[in-house]
Fold Ketoreductase domain-containing protein.
Amino acid sequence: MVGSRARWTAAEIPDQRGRSVVVTGANSGLGFETARMLAERGAHVVLACRNPERATAAAEAIRLTAPDAELSSVRLDLADAGSIRAAAEELRERLARIDLLINNAGAAFGELSLVEGVDRTFATNQLGPFAFTGLLLDRVLAAPAGRIVMVSSNVSGMDELDLDDLDYARRGYGRWKAYAQSKLANLVFALELQRRLTAADAKTLVTAAHPGGANTDFGVNTGGFVGFMGSKTMRRFTAPLAISAERGALNTLRAAVDPEVRGGEFFCPDRLRNMRGYPAARDPGPVASDPATGARLWEICTRLSGVEYAFPA
């Protein structure tokens, strides 16, 4: 395991020239900063975003600090199975290999909304990335040091991933409850995917990251309390406790490019209950590490998404 107190900064990002990177949700916040710093190190970065105009604007902003950046984009709506398949097919046509697949995009919805009988938060944050990753897995496997990163959250202390009530008929919906469950599912998925890749003797690594209390626009368009807390008015009060999006993205970047990282590691800020500081590896917790929970989540995601993973024989 990587040393837990190492002060890892953007200066540690290795040269990325010749590498192809896909970052979901790259038009703003953590995804934008992740894409920007990788582009500045020479990677070809694909901005996978729901809104093509925002992807174009993000690319223009990145070129302000990296004029020679190699950037492209693909439209991706992780709540739409057709969009996921179309985006994956387009990327398969463009890229012979994907060195880094960073599943950064996430959403928190103020009201319960179902997608094919499943809470939209879970569908967007877990089912969508599961399907997108599965459809591109062979391209990541084709890279000599391929890596998949799941951007999760500080959920390793949660004591349950409830997979029997994905429409919230029994529990009653709460936006942060739903978000936390989806982010715990991300962590469970990352460790289960690593177990299956290891069993297949594949060299691809899967890691996860929690960005900490980053000052971003996340949730600002969801309405209600979530939208209010993400508003510019509230961020003026919370900013002193928050870290910048750039600092938050360092957790993702360490999980993605640090050559000393091992598969299954989970990176979080190292101070203030993992809300501030520099990225360091920490225990993902008993639920995320439980193989039985991982296997059950895998079966459910496979059934609901219709995507079967093809591992090396």
In short: Residues 11-304 form a domain with the Rossmann fold fold (CATH 3.40.50.720). The chain has a mean pLDDT of 90.
